[in-house]
TrEMBL record:
GO biological process: coenzyme A biosynthetic process
Alphabetized Gene3D superfamilies for the sequence: 3.30.420.40, 3.30.420.510
Region feature (Disordered): 20-47
CDD domains (alphabetical): ASKHA_NBD_PanK-II_Pank4
Alphabetical list of NCBIfam families matching this protein: panK_eukar
Protein name: Pantothenate kinase
Upper classification of the organism: Eukaryota, Fungi, Dikarya, Ascomycota, Pezizomycotina
One of the record's GO cellular component terms: nucleus
Amino acid sequence: MPAIDSTFFQVALPTQLPVKKMHDNDHPRRRARTMSSTTEEIDSSIHRPGSVKINVKGAFIVDPDLATPRSGTGSPTPRETSDIRLPNHTAIVSHIAIDIGGSLAKLVYFTREADSTDPGGRLNFQNFETDRIDDCIEFMKHLRDKQLSLNGSRLAELSVMATGGGAYKFYDKIRDALGVDVLREDEMECLIIGLDFFITEIPREVFTYSETDPMGFVGPRDNIYPYLLVNIGSGVSFLKVTGPRSYERVGGTSLGGGTLWGLLSLLTGSRSFDDMLDSAAQGDNAKVDMMVGDIYGTDYGKIGLKSTTIASSFGKVFKKKRQAESAAEDSGGLLGEDTLPDQDGFSGNDISRSLLYAISNNIGQIAFLQSQIHNLSDIYFGGSFIRGHVQTMNTLSYAIKFWSKGAKQAYFLRHEGYLGAVGAFLKRQPMNWGRRGSLEGIEDLYEVRRESLMRSAASRRASEAC
């Protein structure tokens, strides 16, 4: 990773730029800011121009009690995400960012400290169910109006950075409702930028999880690459990352958060994702799952399986129903609903925990297999599926540790659901650089600047020779 200034975080940009031949009637689009006499100096001068700078000096995660409050119907769920205080960032921020997935829309925006003489501000985090996108847009309108009022900005100076599938699905709706530019950014690239920012710049953000050490914070490292990012949203993507803008989607699965949400909506009375997680926390999956102990009566030590290891998810359901049917037949009664186990036999809490384990175990094993194929030892889990839920993190962490025999490490983040939104937020460019608000097409801009500088340098050397 290119060296990062200890005070400012910048989006890392490509370092190798193709050079196109300029024709005599071609003119550079803007003046070069610096003059260099050698190719090496020219390359250095345009290596990392003008990307958005966030002053992260002294940054810290705000105490949960002081985090962004909820704001009515359709507002964030009870699991609040702590804001990030940026005490030394004083520049005006005229954009907000949103990552709209299949289940949730995640919003990131910067605010000044209200009624405070202290400089700086904070990054705020909110989420909305995608089905209630209109509530999210209303909240964005409020942010727009506040920005216009506090900073004296003009409407033309404001913009929304959008990523995720909803950036395309709801593009017209957001643009028409807010009356500002909506700039769509690549989802996978935003995930990487957001994760790199959290890993390198925010203290006490990344942690490991185990039953003995629930939150072991990880300090900064000189080199974070390569790694595997497992992004768990409605579905799951596995990304191999070898550099700031060097990544490959190496796999995925459709069995993700949307699967849990959908099946539990059918099987239980839960109607929100957080209700489902709360329900799972109170359940006992052993009443639904068939365990190794149910088959062997004890551990299967020869292959390292404890008696409490799940042998078959939902494996007891069919068996219990067959037992009830047999009992009804033996008693000569009519086979009907009354002869089957009542709701207490398969409680919503037990079902929720069983399904959560089933999906988490599946994701954990696929993550391990992908890390084996690509020789990656560091595995980061992101996405709104996790939500700081103890059972989920424990299952994923245990799966990686078990299958790798301790050779690989699972990492989690306190802002795991906001990687894409933060990445989109950081991709906002100053107005005089390329397409306003994006890195798209930046390579063409580099070529123009490079060739302009080289022509100017050549002209100056010719003048000095005379």
